[in-house]
């Protein structure tokens, strides 16, 4: 198969960072228990993860092709390998901040490279959509694995036992580094005559377009919803459902698994159904789950929970919201990226990463504040606001793209 080596590397790199990035919800829970911080203080970890992603993407996205996608990804993988080892020996809330800041910087290099290379290794819009959805789906598999991986190393009698997971993650990052180092692929050519200043200003030129403004608003709102739920679901399971710590973490995997399944299904459905109807159905269904399912979950009384099988079925219902919010992000990205010339895709990817990071930070911070001040049983109702705005934005985006303004 053409470009099979680099495609495998893209999957592998994304898989590694799926575990690291989305372990933030687990570390938020552990920080409250082990390091004595409250919900609002713990939520700062999301900012330490996301703001470096936004800042680094802003400065490097447009001229990353000159650095080289392979070199950029190798740097990212080397940094997180060292950061994981540092977390094991540091064992403090400050070290957790350093870990996620490093992961954020590295993921900026990885994501811009991966998204840009998707356009290089695919030839049609359908291939682009399929590869984008499958890579994002595989990302969700990595997230799901994190919710089983951390409990596997976590033992109640030893509060520091969970840190051993970082040796495993360091090894996984290093193996991904080695695979990428030896895989053969041709870097895309950099257009002659352009300069770094022009590349840097390209993102600002894109922001002048109404299409880009509406698109990044959609990205911002979606990630606000997704990260607000992903990062705080383990804490919700502990404080509202009163589940044991390891089971609370494993229960959060249902959301990640449903996100993965939803994205894989979306890749099939969108071949036959217009994207606007797929996304509208998805967001409306997610709103119904918040309105009708969440109250029953909050009112659930659980006793003597030792395994996942002891939890009443309704306790599994709310995380299934992932099935419906899952298709939104990859479809939005593919719709816009596949319509752009390849020389603009790196700049647009930079904007995607920046506004994704800002949305994730704000979503987690707001949710953390709501957990502390409004109660953990009420915090997730906040998601109805960005969901409503997102639904409106879909139709505005559809109207713009119908006029071929891309």
Q: How are the secondary structure elements laid out?
A:
Elements: H1 4-21, H2 24-34, H3 39-42, H4 44-60, H5 64-67, H6 69-90, H7 93-121, H8 125-153, H9 165-182, H10 196-207, H11 210-239, H12 245-251, H13 253-269, H14 275-298, H15 322-325, H16 328-337, H17 342-373, H18 384-402
Structure explained in plain terms:
- Helix 7 (93-121) runs antiparallel to helix 17.
- The protein has helices spanning 4-21, 24-34, 39-42, 44-60, 64-67, 69-90, 93-121, 125-153, 165-182, 196-207, 210-239, 245-251, 253-269, 275-298, 322-325, 328-337, 342-373, 384-402.
- With 406 residues, it is mainly alpha-helical.
Broad shape: globular
Structural class computed from helices and strand pairing = mainly alpha
N- to C-terminal distance: 32 Å
Whole-number radius of gyration? 20 Å
Largest sheet, strands/sense/barrel: none
Report mean pLDDT, rounded to a whole number.
81
Q: Into which percentage range does the β-strand content fall? A: under 5%
Flag low-confidence runs.
Answer: none
The number of strands is: 0
Residues in helices, as a percent range: over 70%
In DSSP terms, counting alpha (H) and pi (I) runs of 4 or more, how many helices? Answer: 18
Order of helices and strands: HHHHHHHHHHHHHHHHHH
């Amino acid at each position: 198969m053409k470009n099979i080596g680099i495609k495998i590397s893209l999957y592998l790199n994304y898989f590694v960072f799926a575990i690291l990035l989305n372990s933030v919800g687990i570390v938020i829970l552990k920080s409250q228990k082990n390091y004595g911080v409250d919900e609002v203080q713990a939520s700062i970890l999301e900012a330490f993860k996301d703001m470096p992603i936004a800042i680094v993407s802003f400065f490097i996205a447009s001229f990353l092709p000159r650095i080289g996608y392979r070199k950029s990804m190798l740097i990212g993988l080397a940094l997180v390998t060292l950061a994981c080892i540092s977390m094991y020996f540091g064992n403090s809330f400050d070290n957790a901040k350093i870990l996620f800041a490093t992961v954020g910087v590295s993921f900026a290099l990885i994501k811009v490279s991966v998204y840009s290379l998707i356009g290089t290794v695919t030839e049609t819009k359908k291939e682009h959509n399929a590869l984008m959805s499958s890579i994002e789906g595989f990302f969700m598999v990595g997230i799901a694995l994190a919710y089983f991986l951390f409990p596997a190393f976590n033992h109640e009698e030893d509060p520091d036992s969970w840190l051993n997971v970082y040796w495993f993650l360091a090894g996984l990052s290093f193996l991904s580094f080695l695979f990428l180092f030896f895989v053969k692929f041709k870097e895309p050519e950099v257009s002659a005559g352009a300069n770094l200043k022009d590349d840097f200003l390209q993102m600002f030129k894109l922001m002048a377009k109404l299409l880009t403004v509406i698109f990044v608003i959609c990205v911002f709102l979606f990630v606000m919803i997704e990260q607000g739920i992903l990062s705080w679901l383990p804490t919700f399971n502990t404080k509202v459902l009163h589940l044991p710590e390891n089971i609370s973490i494993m229960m959060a995997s249902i959301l990640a698994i449903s996100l993965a399944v939803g994205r894989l299904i979306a890749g099939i459905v969108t071949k036959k159904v217009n994207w606007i109807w797929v996304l509208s159905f998805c967001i409306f269904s997610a709103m119904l789950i918040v309105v009708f399912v969440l109250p029953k979950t909050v009112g659930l009384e659980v006793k003597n929970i030792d395994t996942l099988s002891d939890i009443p079925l309704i306790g599994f219902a709310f995380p299934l919201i992932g099935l419906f919010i899952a298709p939104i992000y990859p479809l939005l990205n593919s719709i816009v990226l596949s319509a752009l010339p390849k020389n603009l895709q790196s700049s647009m990817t930079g904007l995607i990463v920046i506004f994704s990071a800002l949305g994730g930070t704000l979503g987690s911070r707001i949710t953390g504040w709501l957990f502390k001040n409004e109660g953990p049983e009420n915090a997730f109702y906040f998601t109805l606001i960005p969901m409503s705005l997102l639904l409106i934005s879909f139709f505005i985006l559809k109207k713009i793209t119908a006029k071929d303004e891309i």
